[in-house]
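Quick start: read one record
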Amino acid sequence: MGREFLGIFTDWADSYDSFVEGHDPEYKEVFTGYESILAEVVRRSGKHVLEFGIGTGNLTALLLGAGKNVFAVEPSAQMRQVAARKLGNGFAIHDGDLMSFPQPPKPIDTIVCTFVFHHLTDAEKQEAAFKYAGLLPTGGKIIFADTMFLSPKIHQDTIEKARCQGFHGLADDLGREYYPQITYLKDSFENAGFFVRFSQCNEFAWILEATKK
């Protein structure tokens, strides 16, 4: 369910924002255009949003600033603490993950996350697609931004490129976690009753937009 990587984010909580801002050369290309990616997720979102893996609250703050109602879910206690400082202690952040989370008390029309969905195995991704379909009305949307690959070969070539650049931490990350293949995601969400489209944001990041039929 992705919690096997929780220790990474426990250690990353206080420095995560510097990574996404491009201060670490290994991850600079991964997060190129990060603010624009978040803004695009906000633009495509509806009014009532379930956000998974809010991390330090960067997307959450933008959603709230755009007048959205956000039900926020984050498994890392350390990340929740950092996000609470950013969002204010009056904002509720719920303990949960992509597969196990509290039920939002009100109907939602959008589910979002950024750089999180790759924590699920392929089988869990498919299971999640059906689970999320049950939460959304017809026309409801899933908007996920994440590192994705068009093929296993491109994925492997990217790992090898990172190693050649001396970016061994990035290469290990790309090989360890469950970064999705776009064709598999497309099939998984279409099988769960969604119309699916993808937009590429940089060499690594894509946006998946799935609209419930």
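The longest strand covers residues 205-212.
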